[in-house]
Task: structure prediction
Amino acid sequence: MKKESSMSLRRRKETAVAAAVFLVPALLVIAVFVIYPILQSFITSGYEWNGYSSNKSFIGLANWAELLKDKVFWNAFKNNLLVMVLSIVIQMPIGLALATFLDKVGRKGNVCKVIWFIPMLMSSVAIGYLFRYALDANTGFVTAISKFFGGGTVDLLGNTGTVLITCIFIIAWQFIPFYMVYYLAGYSGLPSDVHEAAMVDGATESQYFWQISLPLLKPTIKSAVVLSIVGSLKYFDLVYVLTNGGPSHASELMATYMYSNAFSSYRMGYASAIASGMFLLISVIAIVTMRVLNGKED
Amino acid sequence: MRKMKKLAAGSLAACMFLLTACGGTKDAAADPGVSEGAGETAAAGDKIPLTLWHIQTGTMNDVIQASVDRFVAENPQYDVTVVEKQNDSYKSDLSLAINAGTLPDVFITWGGQTMYDYIDEGLIYDITDLMKEDGYADSFVDAGIAQCSYNGSIYAVPVENISVAGIFYNKDVFAKYNLQEPSTIAELEAVCDTLVSNGVAPFALANSTQWTGSMYFQYLATRYGGLEPFADAAAGEGSFENDAFVYAGKTIQDWVNKKYFCDGFNGMDDDSGQARMLFYSGNAAMDLMGSWFVSTIAGENQQFLDDDKLGFFPFPALDGSEADPSLCLGTIGDNLYCVSASSKDPEGAFHLIQSLLDDEAQTERTANGKIIPLKSFSSDNEVVNEVLDTVNSASGIQLWYDQYLPAEVAEVHKQTSQEIFGLTMTPEEANAELQSAMTSYLNK
Amino acid sequence: MTGKKKGLKLSSIVIGVLVVFWFLVCMIPFFFLIMCTLKEQFELMNNGVFSMPEGLYLQNYIDVFTGGIWKYFFNSVIVMAVSLVLLLALSALAAYPLSRWTFRLNKPIYSLIVACMSVPIHVTLLPIFMMSVRTGMYDSIWALIGPYVAFNLPISVFILTTFMATIPRDLEEAAKIDGCSLYGIFWRVMLPLVKPGLATLVIYDGVNIWNEFSFALTLTQTAGNRTLPLAVQEFQGQYSMNIPMIMTVLCISILPMVIVFIFGQEKLIKGMMAGAVKG
Result:
């Protein structure tokens, strides 16, 4: 008896040491490149600093007070929320529909699969440049199409009313393929005999989809939603290249606003406050979403 | 998954708690700014590496490269790297380099408050003595040297251009509709109305870039009130809510409503040249631009100059205003070439700058439509001479607001001027916001 | 029976139309892109967007290939290769104990790593920039590797852990009886079994790293030290308004990933399945 427990103790110790050996490298990287920078951002947010001056003065929470009152920041946050909601509304159903189609046709759909996935393989920068020219009010293809049908020039990016929604559609264009593959993976994880059994029972395809596969895909959909939310809130690349937040902050996102404060207005301290505020907001939203999604499951 | 997510949520919250608990300890980012000099670790043997950043485009790239090649041929001890930077992101690039302590040996600034800030920070090498050698400084026009000076010392060489903004136009379009160069704003509006009724956009404008549209604001304010309103506002003695700025904003919005600017102007950026395309093709008739425009065109569409399509007239006068209509908006020298204080060989770097204006370079630059800020400069290009006349007869020069103002206020100015163009703010609101940014900067 | 067939037909038509529609949505921008690359600078303006190019004009490609794009390309390849190797090693190491062993800190550590998935990289951008300056890595491709590994690590650990959890324990037990140490089991038993999972990571993280922009923009400065996504920017500085030229750079930067995807798509989906379904 005694011998056994000392053995298990030794075993446990051995496991603990091995676990440390296995985990330390990864944790170290995360500590250095994720956790430490987050702390650092919070610290810098307490300073008034232009980023290069040796003259860096501690101003306590003044940056945070300014952030709370900063209309542009909250407008950017609102834009992020809009991107988030519309990303879910647009990307999830289309992604699911495409995946359902590909799942049905199987290997025959391989060409479609590859073509449909291409937008995802492009970098956001490339997409940004591509659409900057493609949507040009005078030489772009939307104007070309409009003129073909007798319309006038279409200015999507220079118009405060349309610029954000245009960005959202381009973002959807970019990410739908990702969710398509994600759902496709979800489908291929479903037991294949379920479909046969349902068909034998006389179910139609649409009944099968709504009553059987959709509920089975629920976990996949949930994690896709979480990924989409987090991704939308921290979005940067495409908007930076395409509009840089303009015109008149109409497509400003939290991340682009932070970047221009840091590197165009030379306000490093305030930019850090924006970054930290962004982190807090995203964390809260992510936590709430996970709670809500998990609550529903119970 | 469910459990995992709960846990994840929990640990996130824990992280945040930790973060807030730790805030305010320790000094952040031990003094950046000073670190090893630029472009160290040269692979080229014993050669002294020098790096030069510029933002010229098109054929001017080749002119600069040729100057540098001559410099290296004469001074084989140097190994020079030339980097062409993109104009619109140059400011961020420079800020990153300053932060990182990797300023190139030679870089450009646009003068004004930003350059003074750099000088105060000790980032720019004092070249007064080098400039005075053999009276080199005296060969430049005085206004150019003035722009490069701060507290009695010279910190930069005004290499590029006498850059004043004016209205460039497509002569073919003007001829087609029988239009004359306007000399008052009322006449200009009449020209615009004719163009609009003929389906031609009066002005090509790429205002995603912001400084492009801001020039209209600056000129209109200057025509209304002269130099004082801005000088006072920037010094904290006046205000951006002055009538001059209200007039500028209102006029711009009036023009936007009358469709004086090309379609989609707020979404296009100047670097990608979408607006210039319209100008070249005659779909837009005019372009309010700095006089570097001549060399931009020479660089990317020489044909346009060869066909003698380019015309120029100064920004028209405002009837009934007492402001001097000869005032110009711009800068003498445009890109001011500075030597980094961290350069290992500031003298070499200075001579590198000089090579950009050696005799051969002067010829090439002149051929490229540049208006070199040298007293000896002359050109046989008609448009260039018109610009030169405008400058020479100017009673004063208004430096670009966005270069005169400190960076954070300049950003607000560019933003609010874009808002005015987008009709998303009234001129009063925009000017109030600019004023409050100015006040909060001055109160620091 | 016939009624059902008719219904099926109608719905097939609708589906067919939608499939073609989506095909167009995906392809039109690319069509635009490729048409542009084959045109001369001013052709775009004069002839309209959808016109066919006037003859096969390949000068853009020649100019881009001789204009120094290779430098960016090789930088991208090196950064991606080194980051991937580290990423695979670290995530496999971390995923193993997390998926297999019971020890007190297992769950907290796992949650911490997974929680990092939602950290916006821009919060860390400025501090990492300062850090790279202080360590002297600023403006070299090596500055990119740390952040790339760190920010792809959470999802990689997440995918691999779920993957490893599906592997039956018998093999490990057998190895244990044979006297294999914990490290030996990992190396000789586990690693070969999770190869498909690792392949997924190669593709998934590979695409991410290949296209990454923000860190590359901030942590590098000289053209010779930059990666492919920045080539577009640099070329724009050089060619200013030569739109077809810029489009050509875009086109070239996409190609490698398209090729990789065509060959790797099966594996990508299989691995995502592990993450998506079991999660």
DSSP finds 13 helices and no strands in chain C.
